[in-house]
Design a protein that fits this description.
CATH superfamily of the largest domain: K homology (KH) domain
Mean pLDDT: 88
Oligomer: single chain
CATH architecture of the largest domain: 2-Layer Sandwich
Number of domains: 2
Order of helices and strands: EEEHHEEHH
Structural class: alpha+beta
Distance between the termini: 36 Å
CATH class of the largest domain: Alpha Beta
Strand content: 25-35%
CATH topology of the largest domain: GMP Synthetase, Chain A, domain 3
Radius of gyration: 18 Å
Shape: elongated
Helix content: 25-40%
Length: 143
Amino acid sequence: MPKPIVNKATTTWNGDLFTGSGTVNLDTSGAANLAVNWKARAEESGSATTPEELIGAAHATCFTMQFSNELKENGTPPTTLRTSAEVTFEVGKGITGIVLTVDGEVPGISAEDFSRVADSAKQHCPVSQALKAVDISITATLG
């Protein structure tokens, strides 16, 4: 059985929710250290990243990987797939929807089969499955 892979990100926050700000660091890859703040999340996108943008990036990546594998298993490996994920956040409600949009170059597949395999990939993508509803545990340590 393969060894589980654990990835890590760390957020440092300074101040209260509404006037504070912070950074999120992608620790495992070291690929980014990104600014985060409430205003970007709830008032105007674009000034910093948000949890929803990070979820969208993870979801688009996972889905595309799953889709490429299912297309290969279908006998129609893709040349190129481009996926975007739009994650909607509403203050007081939370995340209210995710829309995946994919287009691709896949020789030898019909539009109907492309849509069918895309739907299957959406169902089998591990991030899609996690976003349905998962048990969440936490270990909190006061430093």
